[in-house]
UniProtKB/TrEMBL annotation:
It is a multi-pass membrane protein. PANTHER family: HIGH-AFFINITY CHOLINE TRANSPORT PROTEIN (PTHR30047:SF7), HIGH-AFFINITY CHOLINE TRANSPORT PROTEIN-RELATED (PTHR30047). It is found in: Cell membrane. Its main location: membrane. Belongs to the BCCT transporter (TC 2.A.15) family. Keywords: Cell membrane, Membrane, Transmembrane, Transmembrane helix, Transport. It comes from Wandonia haliotis. This is BCCT family transporter. The chain crosses the membrane at residues 12-33, 53-72, 92-112, 141-164, 191-210, 230-252, 264-284, 321-339, 351-376, 412-436, 448-468, 474-494. Coiled coil: none annotated.
């Protein structure tokens, strides 16, 4: 713990100090030398977007395909928590909070601006108006659809799974547990969390900075403030950050949950207003056609790198690649928040909700506002909205002037942006404090105030100095290394999910099937002890060999020639019966080694193994089937097991339908 004079803190020194040095250093540099910093970062960003754009295309595609696979796989029924855990929040509250944290201010900022910018882009200027309108909707769907939520879903799922299923801290470092094991508690874990904290802070700061500018523009439109200036932006930041701090101090169960529920209702009211008082028939038809167009073009859009369309490459870099980088840079923050509210959901339920519901709502929202703006621009405004496409701060409010009750709807938009601002900031404060304290159960209230004040001060510093875009560029650059981290999340998840599923599906050991209870004391000793190489060799060369020799003699008495083969390195013994088939009957036992888990080595309630290895006798067969452990078999039980496999072998070769497969001559003729 760190102590600041009389203030007790739960901050982790190894995470908080490096993060603050980097965050404050970058922000101060961006404020003092905004142009120099911007030019330098733009050069780096351009190099990444031009030369490594394929990394984003492939990675985001993998994220989507992986989540769809999990949703329909056998892993989908695994619960994020204990098998009997229940969701902490109602479905409506869960979706509301997920939606508010995931998109928030962006919906208000880009719902009119993005479709209008695609519609009026010079690169598409030669296309017919109807084609430009369709493409504007398609590209907006693509950027705000399943791909964006798949990015959030990967991080949220990994965090939820390892936090609630493995009972690890709700931290990005925990997602590497299957790969790093206990090393996640060391410097590697700190590096991962420092990266997450810095990325979260930069993402929230830039987004909130742009949100403040839009609120200022809306207040000017309503004549509440006389101008858009730093003074009024300062007042807005002070008021909103104060509300965010108060909300964050009440916790997720109260502040964030209540505000998210209020906001989703406000969003739906505004949506219905524009839908029914705007060009309704056009909007419904446009949404229907747009959804079909998105489904039809899904894979083409997903894999498109515009390699053969050089004129559209700059647009591709500045929109699709920028969006993938932007969503990835936000993924630590949004993923942590989603994980915090998703305990008790099944993997299938989690993925379906995260991928489908927000995506569908985004499509409806973007269709209603974007298509309405384009319709007004071509039918009423005579291109006036297209001319404002480069001014997204004011575009939403100018669009609403073509609707009835524009003052009221503009006020509602400001209220929604304010609540989105507060929910994004308070959930961001919560997430940053969680990362900085390694998910401490309870932190002092002053730490919440600290993060809120730091957000406000640095956002205002950058707003005043013009360094906000430099910080945004820095955020986009950090997306590249985090892309690699997210790909490792997938590897880690698959490894853990496979172990998880096998744990619950694993049946009793084959060696326990013939147990009668007669030798229970001896078998208890065997179960809790670890075998060394020589003891397993002794079992194979004595118990197994004696059993095979008795079987060999009995087979001979029945006219069957059975051969016993003994090999070294590793020690193995097998009984073989030759037949005129592809695979002779073989039943063997070999000395096999396996690594003992760190948990068992550290467990005080079990005998200590010798090193990290233990040995056991494992069966193998002539047809390459997977063998099993027979260390608990007695000689007679082993003989019985050999006979079961020989009976199975005889049944297979006696069936006429298997003749082509098992006949040596048939196989020779096929060669």
């Amino acid at each position: 713990m760190i102590y600041f004079r009389n203030f007790k803190s739960t901050f982790s020194k190894g995470i908080t100090i490096p993060s603050l040095i980097f965050i404050i250093g970058v922000c101060v540099l961006s404020a003092i030398y905004p142009n120099l910093t911007q030019n330098l970062l733009d050069t780096i960003k351009s190099f990444i977007f031009v030369n490594l754009n394929w990394v984003y295309v492939w990675s985001v595609t993998i994220f989507v395909l992986f989540l769809v696979y999990l949703m329909f796989s056998k892993f989908g029924s695994i619960r994020l928590g204990a098998n009997d855990s229940k969701p902490q929040y109602s479905f409506f509250s869960w979706i509301s909070m997920l939606f508010a944290a995931g998109m928030g201010i962006g919906l208000m900022y880009f719902s009119v601006a993005e479709p209008m910018q695609h519609f009026s882009a010079d690169v598409f200027a030669d296309n017919p108006v109807t084609e430009r309108a369709k493409d504007a909707q398609l590209f907006t769907f693509f950027h705000w659809g399943i791909h964006a939520w798949a990015i959030y879903g990967i991080v949220g799922l990994a965090l939820s799974y390892f936090a609630y299923r493995y009972r690890l801290p709700l931290s990005l470092r925990s997602c590497f547990y299957p790969l790093l094991k206990n090393r996640i508690n060391g410097k590697w874990g700190n590096v991962i969390d420092v990266f997450a904290l810095c990325s979260t802070f930069f993402g929230i700061t830039t987004t909130l900075g742009f949100g403040v500018v839009q609120i200022n523009s809306g207040l000017e439109t309503l004549n509440i403030v006389p101008e858009t200036s730093f003074f009024y932006q300062l007042l807005i930041v002070v008021v909103l950050i104060s509300l965010s701090i108060i909300s964050a101090m009440t916790g997720v169960n109260k502040g964030v949950k209540l505000l998210s529920s209020i906001n989703i209702i406000g969003v739906i009211v505004l949506l219905l207003f524009v839908l029914f008082l705007g060009p309704t028939v056009h909007l419904i038809g446009g949404f229907t056609e747009g959804l079909g167009n998105y489904i039809t073009e899904f894979f083409q859009l997903t894999f498109s790198t515009h390699t053969y369309e050089e004129d559209t490459l700059p647009w591709f870099y500045n929109w699709t690649i920028l969006y993938w980088a932007w969503w990835i840079s936000w993924a630590p923050y949004v993923g942590l928040f989603i994980a915090k509210i998703s305990k008790g959901r099944t993997i299938k339920e989690f993925i379906a909700a995260v991928l489908i519901l927000p995506t569908l709502f985004n499509f409806i929202w973007m269709s209603v506002f974007g298509n309405s703006a384009i319709w007004f621009d071509t039918h009423v405004a005579e291109g006036a909205l297209s001319q404002l496409a480069s001014d997204p701060d004011a575009l939403m409010f100018r669009f609403l002037e073509y609707m009835p009750l524009s003052s009221i709807t503009s006020g509602l938009v400001i209220a929604i942006i304010v609540i989105f601002f507060v929910t994004s900031a308070d959930s961001g404060i919560f997430v940053m404090n969680s990362i900085a304290t390694k998910n401490a159960a309870k932190s002092p209230k002053w730490q919440v105030v600290w993060w809120g004040v730091l957000l406000a001060v640095l956002a205002l510093l950058l707003l005043n100095a013009g360094g906000l875009k430099a910080l945004q560029t820095m955020t986009l650059i950090t997306a590249l290394p985090f892309t690699a981290i997210m790909l490792l999340f997938i590897v880690s998840l698959m490894k853990a999910l496979t172990i998880d599923r096998n744990y619950y599906e694993r049946e009793f050991s084959v060696s326990s099937v013939p147990w009668s209870g007669e030798y229970w004391k001896e078998r208890l000793k065997q179960i809790v002890s670890f075998k060394n190489h020589s003891s397993v060799d002794h079992f194979i060369l004595n118990t197994v060999r004696k059993g095979f020799e008795e079987l060999q003699k009995e087979f001979a008495d029945n006219g069957i020639d059975a051969k016993i083969n003994v090999r070294d390195n590793p020690t193995s013994i097998e009984i073989e019966i030759r037949h005129d088939v592809v695979n002779n009957f073989v039943y063997g036992v070999k000395n096999q080694v396996k690594k003992v888990s760190d948990y068992l080595i550290d467990e005080d309630n079990l005998p200590d193994p010798e090193g990290q290895k233990t040995y056991y006798p494992k069966t193998y067969f002539g047809d390459a089937r997977e063998g099993y452990d027979v260390q608990y078999f007695t000689k007679n039980e082993l003989i019985s097991d050999v006979l079961k496999h020989y009976e199975r072998f005889m049944e297979i070769i006696s069936e006429e339908q298997n003749e082509m497969f098992i006949s040596s001559n048939a196989n020779k003729n096929m060669k």
